[in-house]
Amino acid sequence: MLGQNVSKNYLKTYAFRTLFTNPLDLFLTFQYHYLFYLKPFFVFSYSVPGAPPDNVWAYNISSTEIKVHWGPIPVDSRNGFILGYRVTVMLNSNVIRNLSTAFITQEIVITGLEKRTTYQVSVAGVTANGVGVKSAPVNVTTDEDGNYLFFHLT
Questions:
Q1: What is the pLDDT of residues 98-134, one digit of tens each?
Q2: Where are the CATH 2.60.40.10 domain residues in the chain?
Q3: CA-CA distance, 76 to 49, in Å (whole number)?
Q4: Which of 16, 22, 54, 120 could link 71 by a cystine bridge, Cβ 3.0 to 4.6 Å?
Q5: Are 38 and 9 in contact (CB under 8 A)?
Q6: Exposed / middle / buried, residue 150 (Cβ in 10 Å: 0-12, 13-18, 19+)
Q7: How many CB atoms lie within 10 A of CB 118?
Q8: Does domain 57-141 have CATH number 2.60.40.10?
Q9: 119 forms bridges with which residues in the sheet?
């Protein structure tokens, strides 16, 4: 190890350079460099997602429930770690629900809806800085309760 005298912000300490023989050395050197030099090796820009999730689609599963699916947000548009998704349900362009999901979820069942009603659903990614760009609204209509006639043959 080679030591040298370093002065930064009225702080004098000794810095050591190591040869990176294993990942632990790299990690420890990064931690040391960040703490004493106050400059990280890597700079990340965090913001809200710049694009909506791919392939948003929805369908009814009953007269009062719909299921919404979506794909991931493109990697180059994530702008940080995706913490979850915000699903917005609208009726006649008025927001009636905002639902949140975990980052590993790419589908949600929405319950308690009106029978035979058309809803608009959109999905957006969420990072630590907030909600990103919403997808284009997808129309989905709940079923109508049917009258079923059962026969019992003996």
A1: 999 999 999 999 999 999 999 999 999 999 899 999 9
A2: 57-141
A3: 9
A4: 54
A5: yes
A6: exposed
A7: 11
A8: yes
A9: 140
The DSSP-derived string for the chain is -EEEEEEETTEEEEEEE----SHHHHHHHHHHHHHHH---SS-----S-SSPPSS-EEEESSSS-EEEE--PPPGGG--S---EEEEEEEETTEEEEEEEEETT--EEEE-SPPTT-EEEEEEEEEETTEE-PPPPPEEEE---PPP-------
Token representation of residue 13? 């300490």
With a threshold of 0.85, does the pTM exceed it? no
Structure tokens at 29: 């050197």
User: Which residue's entry shows tokens 């548009």?
Assistant: 77
For the segment 15-69, what is each residue's pLDDT rounded down to a tens digit?
333 344 444 444 444 444 444 444 444 444 578 999 999 999 999 999 999 999 9
In the chain, the amino acid numbered 34 is Y
